[in-house]
Design a protein that fits this description.
Radius of gyration: 17 Å
Number of helices: 6
Largest sheet: 6 strands, mixed
Number of strands: 10
Number of domains: 2
Strand content: 25-35%
Distance between the termini: 38 Å
Order of helices and strands: EHEEHEHEHEHEHEEE
Structural class: alpha/beta
CATH topology of the largest domain: Rossmann fold
Helix content: 25-40%
Length: 218
Amino acid sequence: MPDPVALSWSGGKDSALALAALRAAGAEVRTLVVTTASGRLGMHRVRAGLVRRQARALGVPVRWVDLPEWPSNATYDTAMSETIDGLLREGVTQLAFGDVHLTDVRAYREERLTPLGVRLLFPLWGRDTRELIDTVLDRGYRAVTVCVDTSCLGASFCGRTVDAGFLADLPDGVDPAGENGEYHTFVSDGPDFAGPVRFRLGAQETRLGSFRYQDLLP
């Protein structure tokens, strides 16, 4: 039996595809590792309650990592060290991420986390981003944009369903899967879900200068 895996979970399309890839390879995904601040998920700012419902629909429990809204590197490192210690005590020796091609992000994870005794997995690494987003559509994942960098995309892209029309409207130079941070998503349904995660669109706000956020209400 392969060693169990924990998956770092953002609630978005890359996390969903990473989960599918791990399961297709025969891995046992034991838990989803979710970092939150003030009841919301990091850059995506999705409410923790919706992610809890996601995990229930996927049949995987959540291990929460609670952080302040603007954690220092030292605070983040301490929280992740404690999390990995807990995983290792439970026999979970591998931690997977949905990173695709940002080498600086991967290098940071490897530098900080590998010395803690966990093996890192990157099941989507090096995949073509057009292929990835086509897979999202072809397999029937339902994703909505919850964050848009308006320095790359118009604010009107925030809160939209990612579908063929969305992709056709993307301006030249924008990665089709948003892998350079142009947009982030929340996945509410797909082939691994026991049923859809219901939500409705709430208010939008702009934070950190250029980032437009769509609130999702349970």
